Amino acid sequence: MSLLDEFDAVLFDAGGVLVLPDPTVLGPLLATYGGDPTVAAHRRAHYAGMAAKSHTDAHEHDWNAYNVAYVRSVGVDDDLVEHAAEVLDHTRTPHLWRWPIPESRTALGGLVDRRVAMGVVSNASGQIAKVLGLAGVCQVGPGTGVPVRVVIDSHLVGVAKPDPAIFEPALRHFDGIDRSRIAYVGDSVVTDVAVAHAAGLQPVLLDPYDDHEGADVVRITSLLAL
Q1: Is this prediction's pTM over 0.85?
Q2: Which of 74, 129, 137, 197 sits a CA distance of 20 to 30 A from 20?
Q3: Shared-domain flag, residues 60 and 116
Q4: Among the three residues 68, 94, 120, which one is the final residue of a domain in this structure?
């Protein structure tokens, strides 16, 4: 049985699922402190950061554990970790979440070919629809990316995860599909998985490096698994 058989529609978080903080900016930034500047190292670092954030049960707006784990993951010198984490925190602005994950773009194309209804629900700062469109990932209506039914930005709707009410504006675009048949794909156990459960959706955890072995949730290493 395919995972697709388990749901009729899918909603995606944006950060960590469709786009990452731009490694072409953060690579040179952290190389100053001994970090590995390669894209591969920074892809891995994001999920190390998210795992640390989840394992410490950090609040959605508390990124300290993420920053420290991120800079350690890319190999920043031990005596510079605290400083590099602070620099990362100031540099990783909302508009820097713009680097499209190649496998995710491919997967979205495959899902639209299979006529799977899709949308995006993300904590953001008013920029995420524009960012996804410019990156060629997805947009509502015609564009360079995959067409989706809706892109929900927490700043614009006035409610943010972990409040499950963030899904309500999105679900209006999925009339006729029971919410128990809608998957929500995110990369945070604490925020995404918990909020999807609370909203009556099917949570799917994107866990490319097996950082959450044993977690009681469907885990995939790439959106291609969908």
Answers
A1: yes
A2: 197
A3: no
A4: 94
Within 10 angstroms of residue 63's Cβ, the number of other Cβ atoms is 17
Burial bucket for residue 149 (CB in 10 Å: 0-12, 13-18, 19+)? middle
Last residue of a domain, one of 65, 94, 123: 94
Phi–psi pair at 139, nearest 5 degrees: -165, 165
First to last CA, the chain: 12
pLDDT category at 1 given cuts 50, 70, 90 is: low
129 and 74 belong to one structural domain: no
- Whether residue 162 is preceded by a cis peptide bond, meaning omega within 30 degrees of 0, is yes
Closest CA to 51 of 198, 190, 175: 190
pLDDT for 57 beyond 90: no
In angstroms, what is the C-alpha Rg of the chain? Answer: 17
Which domain, by its residues, includes 35?
Answer: 22-94
